[in-house]
Amino acid sequence: MESMQSKAIKTLAKIFKINNIWLKQGQELKTLLQKKQEDIGFPTKKMFKNYDIQINVQYKNPIYLLRSELNPAKKTVLYLPGGGFVLPISPLHWSFIDTMIKEANVDVIVPLYPLAPKHTMDDIMRYLLNIYENIVNNQEKLIIMGDSAGGTIALSFIQLLKKQQAVFPKKVIAISPLVDFELKNPEILTVQKLDPISATPALKDIGKWMAGNHSLSDALLSPINGDFAQTTNITIFSGTADITNPDTRKMIQHAPENFNYHEYPDMMHIFPLFPLPEAKKAKKQIIALLK
Predict the structure, then answer these.
(1) What percent of the chain stands above pLDDT 70?
(2) What residue ranges define each of the domains in the chain, with the CATH number in brackets?
C-alpha cells in the first residue's frame, strides 16, 4: 500500500505544479531554461566541513570529487545527476550523494555534464569519456550511477563503451531512466495522468536537441534499442507512477537476463531521492549495491 507521505508529496507536487516546465515547448521552454540553468545547486556547508571536496576545472564543465577523510573508501561512484538533460544539479541530488558517502563509504565523482539545448548527447559522451579515461583510476572498480536523465546517460555510456570495445565499469545503477526518446508507447499517456513530476511535451523538444545528427531511435539516445548482453552488472529502479516506467518495463521484459530490476508500485519519478518510506527500502538496496 502506498504510504501517506508519498500521497502527500504527490498532492503538493500537483498543487505547486512541479511538472509545469515539462509542459512547455518551443521558445517558451528555451526562455525558461535560460533562467533555470543558472540555478546550480552546491554541496552544503556541512558537506564541505565533513568531506574533502575538490573541484576539477580542467574541463569546460566542473567535476566535483568528494571523499570522507575519516573513512577511506574502497569504491568510487561516478554520479550523474538528473534534470531532464536541461536542468543543473540540485540540493536534492547533493543530499542523496551525502547519504551515499555516509552510509556506503564511497568516494563520489560528480561531473556537471553539458546541457541541452546548447549541447547534444555526443557532447555529453565526449565529456564523460574524457573523465572515464583520465580521472577514473580503475574503471573495473567504478560504479556509474544516475537518476532520471543521469540514468539514461549511464545506460547510453555503456553502449558507447561496448561500441569502442572499452573496459566496462563494475556496475551501473539507473534510477528512473528515460530509455526511449521516441516516446511512442501508448501506455505513457495513461501513466502521465498519475505522474506529478514529469510530462512528455518538453521531452519531445529536448529529444530533438539531444539527438544532433542521430536518430531518436539510436541506442545512444534510446537505450531500449541497445545491446546490454555481456556488458556489466546493471540495476534499474522504477516506479509505476512515472512516465518513464512503461518503456523501462518493456526494455526489461525484452531481455530480463541483462538487468536487475526493482519496480515499486505507485512510486513517482526518482522516488528514492525523496523522504518516503518506500524510498528507505530502495536506498537500502542501493547502499547494499555500493558496498
Answers:
(1) 100
(2) 4-290 (3.40.50.1820)
Q: What is the pLDDT of residue 187?
A: 98
Q: What is the rounded distance in angstroms from the CA atom of residue 129 to the CA atom of residue 159?
A: 12
Query: What would the grid cell of residue 98 be?
Result: 551525502
Residue 201 has pLDDT above 90, yes or no: yes
pLDDT tens track for 73-82: 989 999 999 9
- By DSSP bridging, strand 51-56 and strand 63-68 are antiparallel
- 3-class secondary structure per residue, 110-134: EECCCCCCCCCHHHHHHHHHHHHHH
Task: Find all residues with CB under 8 Å of 287, minimum gap 6, and list them.
Answer: 100, 103, 104
- The residue behind cell 495513461 is 190
* C-alpha closest to that of 90 among 6, 147, 139, 144: 147
Q: What is the pLDDT of residue 161?
A: 98
Distance CA 4, CA 197 (A): 17
pTM of the model: 0.97
pLDDT score for 72: 84
pLDDT at 244 over 90: yes
Mark residue 197 as left, alpha or beta (left: phi above 0; alpha: psi -120 to 50; beta: remaining): alpha
